[in-house]
Backbone:
Protein backbone atom coordinates (compact mmCIF):
# COMPACT_ATOMS: atom_id res chain seq x y z
CA UNK A 1 0.00 0.00 0.00
CA UNK A 2 2.89 2.38 0.79
CA UNK A 3 4.23 2.13 -2.77
CA UNK A 4 0.82 2.85 -4.26
CA UNK A 5 0.28 5.75 -1.85
CA UNK A 6 3.63 7.20 -2.88
CA UNK A 7 2.46 7.37 -6.50
CA UNK A 8 -0.90 8.77 -5.45
CA UNK A 9 0.78 11.55 -3.51
CA UNK A 10 3.22 12.16 -6.36
CA UNK A 11 0.39 12.81 -8.82
CA UNK A 12 -0.99 15.50 -6.52
CA UNK A 13 2.43 17.19 -6.48
CA UNK A 14 2.88 17.60 -10.25
CA UNK A 15 2.97 21.31 -11.00
CA UNK A 16 0.37 22.37 -13.57
CA UNK A 17 -1.92 19.37 -13.05
CA UNK A 18 -5.00 20.15 -10.97
CA UNK A 19 -7.58 17.75 -9.52
CA UNK A 20 -9.72 17.46 -12.67
CA UNK A 21 -6.80 16.78 -15.01
CA UNK A 22 -5.19 14.40 -12.52
CA UNK A 23 -8.35 12.28 -12.46
CA UNK A 24 -8.48 12.19 -16.25
CA UNK A 25 -4.79 11.31 -16.44
CA UNK A 26 -5.11 8.35 -14.05
CA UNK A 27 -8.25 7.13 -15.83
CA UNK A 28 -6.50 7.35 -19.21
CA UNK A 29 -3.36 5.38 -18.30
CA UNK A 30 -5.04 2.92 -15.93
CA UNK A 31 -3.44 3.49 -12.52
CA UNK A 32 -1.22 5.85 -10.56
CA UNK A 33 2.10 4.11 -11.14
CA UNK A 34 1.51 3.93 -14.89
CA UNK A 35 1.52 7.74 -15.03
CA UNK A 36 5.23 7.74 -14.26
CA UNK A 37 6.15 4.74 -16.44
CA UNK A 38 4.72 6.22 -19.64
CA UNK A 39 7.03 7.74 -22.23
CA UNK A 40 7.00 11.47 -22.82
CA UNK A 41 5.49 10.82 -26.24
CA UNK A 42 2.67 8.67 -24.79
CA UNK A 43 1.90 11.25 -22.14
CA UNK A 44 1.87 14.13 -24.61
CA UNK A 45 -1.06 12.70 -26.59
CA UNK A 46 -3.29 12.35 -23.53
CA UNK A 47 -6.08 14.97 -23.67
CA UNK A 48 -5.16 17.99 -21.59
CA UNK A 49 -1.48 17.04 -21.13
CA UNK A 50 0.51 18.01 -24.20
CA UNK A 51 4.26 18.20 -24.62
CA UNK A 52 5.07 20.71 -21.89
CA UNK A 53 3.21 18.89 -19.10
CA UNK A 54 4.50 15.53 -20.33
CA UNK A 55 8.06 16.81 -19.96
CA UNK A 56 7.22 18.13 -16.50
CA UNK A 57 5.92 14.72 -15.41
CA UNK A 58 9.05 12.95 -16.66
CA UNK A 59 11.57 15.45 -15.32
CA UNK A 60 9.98 16.40 -12.01
CA UNK A 61 11.34 15.08 -8.72
CA UNK A 62 7.83 14.46 -7.42
CA UNK A 63 8.51 10.79 -6.64
CA UNK A 64 11.35 11.76 -4.31
CA UNK A 65 9.17 14.46 -2.78
CA UNK A 66 6.33 11.95 -2.37
CA UNK A 67 8.69 9.51 -0.65
CA UNK A 68 9.64 12.19 1.87
CA UNK A 69 5.98 13.05 2.43
CA UNK A 70 5.18 9.40 3.03
CA UNK A 71 7.87 9.25 5.70
CA UNK A 72 6.52 12.43 7.29
CA UNK A 73 2.91 11.27 7.54
CA UNK A 74 3.90 7.88 8.90
CA UNK A 75 6.10 9.49 11.55
CA UNK A 76 3.41 11.96 12.67
CA UNK A 77 0.38 9.65 12.55
CA UNK A 78 -1.20 11.50 9.63
CA UNK A 79 -3.51 9.70 7.24
CA UNK A 80 -3.50 10.37 3.50
CA UNK A 81 -6.83 9.61 1.80
CA UNK A 82 -6.89 9.23 -1.99
CA UNK A 83 -9.95 10.18 -4.00
CA UNK A 84 -10.80 6.55 -4.86
CA UNK A 85 -10.50 5.31 -1.26
CA UNK A 86 -13.62 4.22 0.58
CA UNK A 87 -12.82 6.71 3.35
CA UNK A 88 -12.75 9.68 1.01
CA UNK A 89 -15.71 11.90 2.06
CA UNK A 90 -18.67 11.05 -0.12
CA UNK A 91 -20.06 14.58 -0.26
CA UNK A 92 -16.72 16.00 -1.35
CA UNK A 93 -16.22 13.27 -3.96
CA UNK A 94 -19.19 14.67 -5.89
CA UNK A 95 -17.35 17.98 -6.43
CA UNK A 96 -15.43 17.87 -9.71
CA UNK A 97 -12.55 19.97 -8.34
CA UNK A 98 -12.17 18.03 -5.09
CA UNK A 99 -8.55 17.33 -4.05
CA UNK A 100 -6.82 14.17 -5.24
CA UNK A 101 -5.37 13.59 -1.77
CA UNK A 102 -6.52 14.75 1.67
CA UNK A 103 -4.14 14.72 4.63
CA UNK A 104 -5.93 14.25 7.94
CA UNK A 105 -4.99 14.08 11.59
CA UNK A 106 -7.39 12.92 14.29
CA UNK A 107 -10.61 11.03 13.76
CA UNK A 108 -11.88 10.83 10.20
CA UNK A 109 -15.55 10.13 9.66
CA UNK A 110 -17.34 12.70 7.54
CA UNK A 111 -19.93 10.38 6.03
CA UNK A 112 -22.41 10.98 8.83
CA UNK A 113 -26.02 12.06 8.43
CA UNK A 114 -25.59 15.80 9.10
CA UNK A 115 -22.58 17.99 8.32
CA UNK A 116 -22.76 21.78 8.65
CA UNK A 117 -20.14 24.35 7.62
CA UNK A 118 -20.02 27.53 9.71
CA UNK A 119 -18.04 30.49 8.37
CA UNK A 120 -17.62 34.21 8.93
CA UNK A 121 -15.30 37.13 9.42
CA UNK A 122 -12.02 37.06 11.32
CA UNK A 123 -13.10 40.30 13.05
CA UNK A 124 -16.27 38.92 14.55
CA UNK A 125 -18.46 41.12 16.74
CA UNK A 126 -19.58 39.99 20.18
CA UNK A 127 -23.15 39.58 18.91
CA UNK A 128 -21.99 37.36 16.05
CA UNK A 129 -20.01 35.12 18.43
CA UNK A 130 -23.07 34.85 20.68
CA UNK A 131 -25.25 33.88 17.70
CA UNK A 132 -22.68 31.33 16.55
CA UNK A 133 -22.31 29.64 19.94
CA UNK A 134 -26.04 29.63 20.62
CA UNK A 135 -26.79 28.02 17.27
CA UNK A 136 -24.23 25.27 17.84
CA UNK A 137 -25.43 24.70 21.40
CA UNK A 138 -28.97 24.20 20.09
CA UNK A 139 -27.76 21.91 17.31
CA UNK A 140 -25.97 19.78 19.89
CA UNK A 141 -29.15 19.48 21.95
CA UNK A 142 -31.55 18.81 19.09
CA UNK A 143 -29.29 17.12 16.51
CA UNK A 144 -26.50 15.34 18.39
CA UNK A 145 -23.69 13.98 16.22
CA UNK A 146 -23.87 16.81 13.69
CA UNK A 147 -20.39 17.55 12.36
CA UNK A 148 -19.25 21.20 12.34
CA UNK A 149 -16.79 22.23 9.61
CA UNK A 150 -14.81 25.47 9.49
CA UNK A 151 -11.36 26.83 8.71
CA UNK A 152 -9.71 27.29 12.16
CA UNK A 153 -9.17 30.99 11.44
CA UNK A 154 -9.67 33.84 13.89
CA UNK A 155 -13.19 35.07 14.60
CA UNK A 156 -16.19 32.98 13.61
CA UNK A 157 -14.15 29.91 12.59
CA UNK A 158 -12.54 29.33 15.96
CA UNK A 159 -15.78 30.31 17.70
CA UNK A 160 -17.58 27.53 15.80
CA UNK A 161 -14.90 24.95 16.59
CA UNK A 162 -14.75 25.96 20.26
CA UNK A 163 -18.53 25.82 20.61
CA UNK A 164 -18.64 22.38 19.00
CA UNK A 165 -15.99 21.15 21.44
CA UNK A 166 -17.83 22.72 24.37
CA UNK A 167 -21.14 21.06 23.51
CA UNK A 168 -19.79 17.70 22.38
CA UNK A 169 -20.11 17.88 18.60
CA UNK A 170 -17.38 16.53 16.30
CA UNK A 171 -15.60 19.34 14.47
CA UNK A 172 -13.04 19.51 11.65
CA UNK A 173 -10.78 22.38 10.63
CA UNK A 174 -9.75 22.67 6.99
CA UNK A 175 -6.29 24.23 6.74
CA UNK A 176 -4.58 26.28 4.02
CA UNK A 177 -1.14 24.83 4.69
CA UNK A 178 0.63 21.57 5.51
CA UNK A 179 -0.03 19.63 8.70
CA UNK A 180 3.48 20.31 9.96
CA UNK A 181 2.16 23.57 11.46
CA UNK A 182 -0.97 25.22 12.80
CA UNK A 183 -1.95 28.70 11.66
CA UNK A 184 -2.88 31.02 13.32
CA UNK A 185 -0.21 30.42 15.94
CA UNK A 186 -2.74 30.97 18.76
CA UNK A 187 -4.84 27.93 17.82
CA UNK A 188 -2.67 24.79 18.35
CA UNK A 189 -4.46 23.90 21.60
CA UNK A 190 -7.85 24.11 19.90
CA UNK A 191 -6.57 21.99 17.00
CA UNK A 192 -5.16 19.39 19.40
CA UNK A 193 -8.45 19.16 21.25
CA UNK A 194 -10.30 18.80 17.94
CA UNK A 195 -8.36 15.65 17.04
CA UNK A 196 -10.08 13.82 19.91
CA UNK A 197 -13.54 14.31 18.38
CA UNK A 198 -12.90 15.44 14.83
CA UNK A 199 -9.62 16.63 13.42
CA UNK A 200 -7.73 18.80 10.95
CA UNK A 201 -7.70 18.36 7.19
CA UNK A 202 -5.53 19.73 4.37
CA UNK A 203 -4.84 19.04 0.73
CA UNK A 204 -1.36 20.54 1.09
CA UNK A 205 1.77 18.49 1.87
CA UNK A 206 4.12 19.28 4.72
CA UNK A 207 6.26 22.35 4.22
CA UNK A 208 3.44 24.30 2.58
CA UNK A 209 3.21 27.71 4.26
CA UNK A 210 -0.06 29.63 4.54
CA UNK A 211 -0.51 31.85 1.50
CA UNK A 212 -3.47 33.85 0.22
CA UNK A 213 -4.28 31.63 -2.80
CA UNK A 214 -4.26 28.56 -0.56
CA UNK A 215 -6.99 30.03 1.65
CA UNK A 216 -9.21 30.44 -1.40
CA UNK A 217 -8.53 26.83 -2.42
CA UNK A 218 -9.30 25.53 1.06
CA UNK A 219 -12.69 27.28 1.00
CA UNK A 220 -13.98 24.84 -1.61
CA UNK A 221 -13.22 21.94 0.72
CA UNK A 222 -15.12 23.60 3.58
CA UNK A 223 -18.12 23.99 1.25
CA UNK A 224 -17.82 20.57 -0.34
CA UNK A 225 -17.64 18.57 2.88
CA UNK A 226 -20.97 19.87 4.18
CA UNK A 227 -24.67 19.50 3.41
CA UNK A 228 -25.20 23.18 4.10
CA UNK A 229 -23.36 26.33 5.12
CA UNK A 230 -24.16 29.04 7.66
CA UNK A 231 -22.55 32.44 7.18
CA UNK A 232 -22.67 34.14 10.58
CA UNK A 233 -21.15 37.55 9.87
CA UNK A 234 -19.01 39.10 7.14
CA UNK A 235 -18.25 42.19 5.16
CA UNK A 236 -19.13 42.33 1.49
CA UNK A 237 -15.75 40.84 0.55
CA UNK A 238 -13.69 38.07 2.06
CA UNK A 239 -13.33 34.34 2.47
CA UNK A 240 -16.75 33.76 4.01
CA UNK A 241 -18.50 35.26 1.00
CA UNK A 242 -16.29 33.26 -1.38
CA UNK A 243 -17.07 30.06 0.53
CA UNK A 244 -20.81 30.86 0.45
CA UNK A 245 -20.72 31.33 -3.33
CA UNK A 246 -18.80 28.07 -3.75
CA UNK A 247 -21.37 26.28 -1.58
CA UNK A 248 -24.12 27.65 -3.79
CA UNK A 249 -22.29 26.40 -6.90
CA UNK A 250 -22.11 22.93 -5.30
CA UNK A 251 -25.88 23.03 -4.81
CA UNK A 252 -25.53 23.23 -1.04
CA UNK A 253 -28.06 25.08 1.11
CA UNK A 254 -26.70 28.45 2.24
CA UNK A 255 -28.02 30.39 5.24
CA UNK A 256 -26.98 33.71 6.76
CA UNK A 257 -27.71 35.77 9.83
CA UNK A 258 -28.99 39.25 8.95
CA UNK A 259 -27.26 42.34 10.32
CA UNK A 260 -27.89 45.99 11.03
CA UNK A 261 -28.16 48.14 7.92
CA UNK A 262 -25.10 50.31 7.37
CA UNK A 263 -22.66 48.29 9.45
CA UNK A 264 -19.66 46.97 7.53
CA UNK A 265 -19.81 43.43 8.93
CA UNK A 266 -23.53 43.19 8.17
CA UNK A 267 -23.11 43.81 4.46
CA UNK A 268 -22.07 40.26 3.52
CA UNK A 269 -24.97 38.45 5.14
CA UNK A 270 -27.52 41.02 3.99
CA UNK A 271 -26.16 40.78 0.44
CA UNK A 272 -26.44 36.97 0.36
CA UNK A 273 -30.02 37.17 1.64
CA UNK A 274 -31.00 39.98 -0.73
CA UNK A 275 -29.64 38.09 -3.74
CA UNK A 276 -31.46 34.89 -2.68
CA UNK A 277 -28.14 33.10 -2.30
CA UNK A 278 -28.82 32.50 1.39
CA UNK A 279 -31.92 31.88 3.47
CA UNK A 280 -32.32 34.23 6.43
CA UNK A 281 -31.89 32.54 9.80
CA UNK A 282 -31.93 33.87 13.35
CA UNK A 283 -32.12 30.65 15.39
CA UNK A 284 -32.18 26.85 15.32
CA UNK A 285 -35.84 26.77 14.27
CA UNK A 286 -35.02 28.76 11.14
CA UNK A 287 -32.14 26.41 10.33
CA UNK A 288 -34.34 23.34 10.84
CA UNK A 289 -37.00 24.82 8.57
CA UNK A 290 -34.48 25.74 5.85
CA UNK A 291 -32.88 22.29 5.88
CA UNK A 292 -35.93 20.18 6.62
CA UNK A 293 -34.31 18.87 9.79
CA UNK A 294 -36.58 17.45 12.45
CA UNK A 295 -35.54 17.65 16.09
CA UNK A 296 -34.90 14.25 17.64
CA UNK A 297 -37.59 15.03 20.19
CA UNK A 298 -40.24 15.10 17.49
CA UNK A 299 -38.91 12.41 15.19
CA UNK A 300 -41.43 9.76 14.22
CA UNK A 301 -40.48 6.31 13.03
CA UNK A 302 -42.56 5.38 10.00
CA UNK A 303 -43.10 1.75 9.09
CA UNK A 304 -43.63 0.60 5.55
CA UNK A 305 -47.03 -0.98 5.13
CA UNK A 306 -45.72 -3.68 2.82
CA UNK A 307 -42.10 -4.81 2.48
CA UNK A 308 -39.58 -2.39 3.96
CA UNK A 309 -39.05 -0.63 7.30
CA UNK A 310 -37.85 2.98 7.32
CA UNK A 311 -36.55 5.36 9.95
CA UNK A 312 -38.30 8.46 8.62
CA UNK A 313 -41.05 9.56 6.27
CA UNK A 314 -38.40 11.00 3.95
CA UNK A 315 -36.70 7.62 3.61
CA UNK A 316 -39.98 6.03 2.56
CA UNK A 317 -40.74 8.83 0.08
CA UNK A 318 -37.33 8.72 -1.59
CA UNK A 319 -37.20 4.92 -1.60
CA UNK A 320 -40.60 4.72 -3.32
CA UNK A 321 -39.52 7.30 -5.90
CA UNK A 322 -36.54 5.08 -6.74
CA UNK A 323 -38.84 2.04 -6.93
CA UNK A 324 -40.65 3.83 -9.74
CA UNK A 325 -37.57 5.24 -11.48
CA UNK A 326 -34.74 2.83 -10.51
CA UNK A 327 -31.98 5.46 -10.91
CA UNK A 328 -32.03 9.23 -10.34
CA UNK A 329 -29.62 12.03 -9.53
CA UNK A 330 -29.85 13.94 -6.26
CA UNK A 331 -31.27 16.96 -8.12
CA UNK A 332 -33.95 14.79 -9.73
CA UNK A 333 -34.85 13.37 -6.34
CA UNK A 334 -35.17 16.91 -4.96
CA UNK A 335 -37.57 17.85 -7.76
CA UNK A 336 -39.70 14.72 -7.49
CA UNK A 337 -39.88 14.74 -3.69
CA UNK A 338 -40.03 18.54 -3.12
CA UNK A 339 -37.43 18.03 -0.36
CA UNK A 340 -34.42 20.36 0.12
CA UNK A 341 -30.97 19.26 -1.06
CA UNK A 342 -29.68 18.80 2.49
CA UNK A 343 -32.58 16.50 3.42
CA UNK A 344 -32.19 14.41 0.27
CA UNK A 345 -28.42 14.10 0.83
CA UNK A 346 -28.79 13.03 4.45
CA UNK A 347 -31.66 10.64 3.74
CA UNK A 348 -29.92 8.96 0.79
CA UNK A 349 -26.84 8.48 2.96
CA UNK A 350 -29.02 6.68 5.53
CA UNK A 351 -30.55 4.48 2.82
CA UNK A 352 -27.07 3.72 1.49
CA UNK A 353 -25.87 2.68 4.96
CA UNK A 354 -28.95 0.46 5.22
CA UNK A 355 -27.92 -1.30 2.00
CA UNK A 356 -31.02 -0.21 0.09
CA UNK A 357 -29.45 2.10 -2.48
CA UNK A 358 -26.09 2.51 -4.15
CA UNK A 359 -24.37 5.84 -4.83
CA UNK A 360 -23.15 6.15 -8.42
CA UNK A 361 -20.79 8.65 -10.12
CA UNK A 362 -22.41 11.98 -10.86
CA UNK A 363 -24.27 12.10 -7.55
CA UNK A 364 -26.82 9.55 -8.77
CA UNK A 365 -28.53 6.78 -6.81
CA UNK A 366 -29.67 3.33 -7.82
CA UNK A 367 -31.98 0.95 -6.00
CA UNK A 368 -30.31 -2.24 -4.75
CA UNK A 369 -33.41 -4.06 -3.54
Residues:
Amino acid sequence: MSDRLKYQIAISLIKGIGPKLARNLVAYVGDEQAVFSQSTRSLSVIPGIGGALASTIKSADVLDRAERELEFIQKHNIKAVYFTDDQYPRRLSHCEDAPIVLYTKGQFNLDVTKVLAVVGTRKASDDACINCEKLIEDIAQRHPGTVIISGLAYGIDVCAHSAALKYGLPTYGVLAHGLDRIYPSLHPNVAKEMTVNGGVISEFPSGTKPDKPYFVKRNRIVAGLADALVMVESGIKGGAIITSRIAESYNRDVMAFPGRVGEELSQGGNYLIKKNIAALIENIEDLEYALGWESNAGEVVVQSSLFQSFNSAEEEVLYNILVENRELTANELCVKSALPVSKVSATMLSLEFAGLVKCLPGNAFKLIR
Notes: Residues 297-307 have pLDDT under 50 and may be disordered. The longest strand covers residues 101-106. The chain is about 45% helix and 15% strand.
